[in-house]
Amino acid sequence: MHLSVRIIITCLVLYGHNVHAQSLRKDSLPLSADSMRVERAVLYPFNSLQQLLKGNAAGVYIQEPSAEPASMSSIVMRGTAVPYTSARNNYEAQPTVILDGIPLIADHPFTFDIQEFQYNHLGPASNVYAAIDPNNIASIEVLKDFGQAAMYGPRAANGGVILIHTKEPVIGKRKISFNTYFGIVQRPHLFTTNAKFENDFRQVFYDKYATEEESQTYPLYLRDSTNNAYYGPANWTDLYFKNAPVYGINATLSSGTDRANFLFAAGNQRSANAADRSRADRYNAMFKINMVPLKGFTVSAMLSATRLERKRNRWLRDRFAEMQYLPDLSSPLPPNKAFYGQYLKEWDKSFDDNKTNEVNGYFSINLRISDSWQLTSLSGFDYNEGLRDVFYPSTLLETVNYLSNYFGYNQRVFVNNTVQFQHQWGKHGVKVEAGENFQADFNRYNYAYAYKGPNDLIRVNLLYSDNTKTNYLSPKSFNHALMFTFLDKQRHRLLSFYGRMAYQYDNRFDFSLMMRADGSSSAQPDNWWFYSPTFTAGWRLSTTSRLHASWGRVGRLMPDDRFGEGPQYTSDLSFSNNPVRFSYNGFPGISRAYSSGYIGYGIRWPFTDQLDIGWNTTLLHDRVNLAIDVYHKMDHNMLLEVPFSAEYGYAYQFKNGMKVRNMGVDLSANAIIATKTITWQPGINLNYNRNTLMALPGGLQQLVVADGTRLLKVGNSIDQFWVLENNGIYNRDSDIPSSHASGKPLNYKGIPLQAGDPKWVDQNNDGVIDDKDKVLKGHILPVISGGFNNDISWKGLTLGVNFYFTAFRKVMNAEMANHFDFVNREGKIDMSAVKEITFWTKAGNYDKYPRYNPWSTVDPYRTDQDLFLENGAFLKLRTLSLSYDLTTARWWHKKSPVHNLAVYATASNLFTLTPYTGGDPELVDYSGFDTGYALPFTKTYTIGIKMDL
Amino acid sequence: MKRLFLLLLLLVFCSVSCKKLLDIDSTHAVSEENFWNSHEDTRTALIGVYGLLRAAMADNDAWWMYGELRMGDFQSVQRQDLKAIVKGNLRAAYPLLQTLSNWRRFYAVINAANMFMEHVGEVRERDPKYSEQNMKVDIAQMRFMRAYTYFFLVSVWGDVPLITSSHDGEFENKARDDKATVLAFVEKELLAAAPDLPYKYSTDDPQQLGQYYNETSTRWAGVLARKLTAYAILAHVAAYQGKYVDASVYGQFVLDNYSKGGSYYVGTDELVRGTGFFHWKQDNHILGFNFDWGHVDATFSGHLEELTLASPVVNKALPDIYIPRDTILSVFDQPLDERFSLDTLTGIPTSERYFTSFNTQIPIFNKVKVIQDGNTSDPSFRIYSSTIIITRLENITLLQAEALAVIGQQQNAIDLLNTIRDLRRIKRYDVNVEGDLIDAIFRERRKELMGEGWRWFDLIRYNKIKQNDPAFMALINSGGIYWPVADEVMTQNPLITQNPYWQ
Fold first, then answer.
1. Inside any domain, residue B432
2. Do A704 and B488 lie within an 8 Å CB cutoff?
3. What is the pTM assigned to this prediction?
4. The domain that contains A648 carries what CATH number?
5. B411: CB partners within 8 A, 6+ apart
6. Residues of chain B contacting A560 with CB distance shorter than 8 Å
7. Which of A312, A655, B124, B483 could pair with A697 in a Cys bridge, judged by C-beta atoms 3.0 to 4.6 Å apart?
């Protein structure tokens, strides 16, 4: 009762509406900071929303961990408050994408619960935003300041929301548009190596340090120099890299009157990477209608469907991770084409089908009762499902074949009702809006896998389907003891009410106030509701210049429905290498959630406050459009798993109280510089962001997270590397200093250092190198990132040159570290011992690293030292395009029904300038590690034609 | 105005139903109010405790890491982290050692057992099907599980915090308690649990009438703690403390009553067969944690086979650990030993039950080899279903021989030693040939229990009896026989201090 009273009061007092006080924008100029038009972007063979956004919007940083088409990539808006300590964090930190008012639902990371290796989400692991066809997009708007974004409540918690506006039907005429391109991705050239190279590399260490016993376990594949598989020519790249075709086609038909109109669009796109014959195919269709059956009464609907099919990479790692089983790893893939080809031939007997289907749509009714009153009801859904069917034949893995099937879906339905009132009394304008929103999410997956089928011809796990027999649902040919099945569900509901009131005086001053109440089913029952206000104010200095400020608060949703349960019981019988034990003696066993963390009562909503002050203006006779926003974003009360009381069995406790600040500037500027014949339109967008950890739960000053690899320390950033400072090598035992205090020689956590060990800086001078001597260095996320885009037009020709850059960012060259750490990566059956075919390449300069004793128990080539930490700044010429508008040609029939016809050519991923010595500095995982597990950005060339009639 | 009113009505209606909209239960976590309601919940919780201890023992093959490797017979082939454990270099910078230094998983067992005992009364009240006797036997098992876990904690870390209630929601840091205090608690608890435990389940034992949780005795064979289990562990606890008089009393109980629990002396062939003693679950497992093949419980790790087997037994080039030939020859020095013996003339093994590929540089220890379902010689898939055997009848017999030898009952001790020697078809003990009886008993233990996770703990007891190895005595006296405590344990609980030896 208490609840409803408060909401009524909220409705009565606070409901209002914003006055859309946007600055005037010159049509000839590209849209400002937070908006991008897509008509130029559709020329390029981009295959996801992330690629469209990359380098195009200030404050939106795109982190692609691999250039594999349609694979997962992440968006970071205005820094992050999530510390990215696990693969799950990556999902929790993503901003919401809203397609024509439909908040899109993405994969939920709960499949990681049953995955021992968390490199990929289970199933097709496709990027759901790769399902959007750029040709259907009219514009993309990035709402970062809470003055606008708080309308979306908790969906805006990760830095704001991204609005996609699809194209609207035309009114009063018929329009048909085509866009098609064809192109090729070009295979890159690498410096390949063979066993001789590797042998020479290792021999140095063996000569210097190896004992006789250690020499005896020298790997077999390097021992026999007559073995052509390893010692023969290293020409595997001939099979690994292939030039591959890419293409795209889209047709849009639109027609109608002002009472009824429609748009229909269909498209197909193939994206490819030259590496490992990976590719993605997208088929999509969209249908949109608007009807005005009565004056003031508008009905609109949209329905869009996409199918995405992926051919994924063939990393051994990903295959073993899918199987959760590793074979003997003593003989890696050979670098010689003839032998590598035999392996690929066996691969061809496997299948790995990855499909994603996505359907979404909305239905909206707008009732304009009078000039002052209108009612809008928008309801819609988003559904995407992923299917993956895998079969690996027995010839690929020691006569053990493997089969798995995944079917998972994410479903969201929502209803959004608003009532608006607006009125103008002389110079006083008032808008009041009240709304309610209900959103129900459901994520679910079924997953089953089986090992050791009877032969390679049976590739489907059939079950007995007669439910009257005792063998109902038992497998027909697979051994049921080697068959594992899983099912999990995740539900979430969000119910919101809001009211907004805006006042405008004389078209010069405006302010607004919004109050909202959000109820989440994942919050605990005594804490379902979160109330938050937002204020905005604006001052129009002149017709082209406006100052605006906003302060707002939005809640952050709990990442899992189990937070709502309080202290809870779950299955916790798993252990290393066996993540999916739920039973003992064939009975399910449950206990408190010891490994996954204690959740007590009193978990409260985390929330974000953001202050944003901005200035939009045009300068120099409207030739320059400038937008600057300064923001101060504070995430309060964030949940963090804090290690606690091992003596009560728990690994962690989830606690509120982490506080993270992101402060920075978004700047974007566009200009037109024109002579009589040439027009140059440069545009720059840039984000500067500083991230600071303000507090940890329970007043902690620092906390070691991510299995001991990262440190969160109050006053520092949450995205820093935590490393020992490396200062060379101890060449002689006599070089090793002794502690002044104890007189003992310097040691690493009790292990005395010896000749051949690294010289690590003993920061606290206590004579022991340990975690206290690790320092926080560098940032995983760039402090500065942005894009520099240019369009140069001459007559009908337009040249587009687009750069993408980041600065003040570090990368851990883990691939290099792994190469040196060969001693710990042989003779094990363990992911660290897996050598991909790309093991046979050389990237970077081996000579710049000291020759440590790799057998030393201090693990000298560890990644938690700054030896492998490098500057990851880069500047890329990302895309280049040349288009010619034929309609501007002198010979063009002005009366032709074709009123737009352009031919174009593009080139992508042309070059990268970087001090980084490894591979591509852009391709790192969420922890800033370049592990070498990324397909490279390959050069892509296309030619295309675009036509409107 | 009328329309606004309508809208308000709509909102009021909605806010009344808000509770309905937002109140949904998670499908992968059970809240406190939905648990502890029926006998199904107690079974699930009881199984959970066993499963947690299995997980703790199987995690990184902990049972063998703590008990078998250090200064034992096994050597690491290539793995640096295992080399460090064998050498006793337990602070080496490898993730494995850091994980093994953390006692959390064992305390999870203790917390779960404490939770069970605190809440089981609620189920008794709420579910009439949950009988008084069922509750009694469940509680006895939980007391056993908690006590055994504490015993193992003390064996590995020495002084550990003694926590006997769940402190749910009000967790307070506790310092380490003296190991003597903890072991006194262990002994008290085991003695209290023993009378309530049956010899077997679902066999109308007076302590447990009728079908236990509606399942037959086959389903429960060797799975749960029984009377013999309690006495066997009591014998181990007493021997660990050097209280050999007590140990002999507890051990005698096992030796007098083992047939009631379905135990028997295992022949050598049965011991090493894939479908033999280590196979699945059996009444003869006095304490063991099984991985039930038939119920999709077999696993890739958590078995000795993961470390010891390699080609030609399974597809793996080299094992992780092996026993060098010299060690094998010096340990198995008796002719015609069914476990392993060498014909000294030909140099060819006469029996190879414990080892295969003896004549290679790296012999394979294949005493335990329950590959897949155990009934196969197919090397292709390294999934195992062997049971983690904590103790068995032969172990208790030799322990009893040790106890009797120490307290001076030489002849009884020799008889027990000879029971095992007869079983393995080697000559009976002759003081003139083999010398000291204690030495002979420990030699026999070394052979019989090879690869079963006892070597290190045997070495400690042996040296405590003999006191003739100054280096080892120094290790015992300085606390070096215990594992260091993981850094993260000390960070989160400042009252925990590092073992002085590892500081």
1. no
2. yes
3. 0.92
4. 2.40.170.20
5. none
6. 26
7. A655
